[in-house]
Structures are given as structure tokens and as C-alpha cells.
């Protein structure tokens, strides 16, 4: 299952694990091609050029392997899609849910995933 974005697609739990282990700063948006998620994917695609030190990826929420995000302790209680996870040195630095503006994303990137 693959989302229709220009982001790197994380398909399996192993893809997810390897991606966050191999990159110091990572943002993963776990969602669907719906009205709450698409603006977040678009913002991520736009921010990729300005944040070269951060790797951006998506993961399909309905994929069985997305349990690595859906069931993460940081996502407990989240109600709205997408689930967005930010990782620093392989560890969760921040998590959020529901629609995010580019400004909200930038604020997290600037505070949690510094160079």
C-alpha cells in the first residue's frame, strides 16, 4: 500500500525502523489520502528543500505495518489523522495528530530537529 505523494514511502515496519536508524532527523506522516492528511503531505513536500538535514517520509495508516506508529505510546489517545512522528537520533522527539499548517510543522522542526 502506497500513498500518492512525492515523499519517501515507508511500506514495512522494517523500512520504518531502518529509516529512523539511518537518519539523524526524521519526520513521518502516517495517514490516508484524505482532507486532513493531504495538506500535511503537501507542506512536507514544500519544506524538504528548506530542511535538507531532515528526511521526510509517509506511511499508509491502514497498512498492517503502520502499527509501529499507530500503537506507539506517544500516539495513545490520538483521535484525528494523520499521526505525525518526529525522530531525533532514532528516538521519538515529538508526536502530533490532525491537520497541521506549514507554520506548525516548521515550529516543531526548528525546536526538535535542529542541525
Helix content range of the residues, please?
25-40%
Spell the H/E element sequence: EHEHEHEEH
The CATH superfamily name is Glutaredoxin
Q: Give the count of helical stretches.
A: 4
Radius of gyration: 12 Å
Content-based structural category: alpha/beta
How much of the sequence lies in strands comes to 15-25%
Strand elements, count: 5
CATH topology type: Glutaredoxin
User: In angstroms, what separates the terminal alpha carbons?
Assistant: 32 Å
Chain-averaged pLDDT: 96
**Strand order of the biggest β-sheet:** 1-3-2-4-5
Largest sheet: 5 strands, mixed
Overall CATH architecture = 3-Layer(aba) Sandwich
CATH class: Alpha Beta
Low-confidence segments, given as residue ranges, are none
Which of globular, elongated, flat, extended, rod-shaped describes the shape?
A: globular
List the domain count as a whole number. Answer: 1
Descriptive labels:
115 residues; alpha/beta; Glutaredoxin; five-stranded mixed sheet; 5 strands; globular
Description:
It is a single chain. This protein is 30% helix and 24% strand. By secondary structure, the chain is α/β, with parallel strands linked by helices. It has a single domain, classed as Glutaredoxin, CATH 3.40.30.10. The chain has a 5-stranded mixed beta sheet, sandwiched between helices. The radius of gyration is 12 Å and the shape is globular. The mean pLDDT is 96.
Amino acid at each position: 500500500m502506497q500513498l500518492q505523494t512525492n515523499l519517501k514511502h515507508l511500506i514495512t515496519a522494517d523500512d520504518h525502523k531502518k529509516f529512523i536508524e539511518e537518519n539523524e532527523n526524521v519526520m513521518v506522516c502516517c495517514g490516508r489520502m484524505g482532507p486532513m492528511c493531504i495538506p500535511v503531505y503537501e507542506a512536507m513536500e514544500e519544506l524538504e528543500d528548506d530542511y535538507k538535514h531532515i528526511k521526510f517520509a509517509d506511511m499508509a495508516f491502514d497498512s498492517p505495518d503502520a502499527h509501529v506508529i499507530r500503537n506507539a505510546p506517544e500516539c495513545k489517545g490520538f483521535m484525528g489523522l494523520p499521526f505525525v512522528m518526529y525522530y531525533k537520533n532514532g528516538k521519538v522527539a515529538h508526536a502530533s495528530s490532525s491537520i497541521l499548517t506549514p507554520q506548525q510543522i516548521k515550529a516543531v522542526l526548528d525546536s526538535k530537529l535542529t542541525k
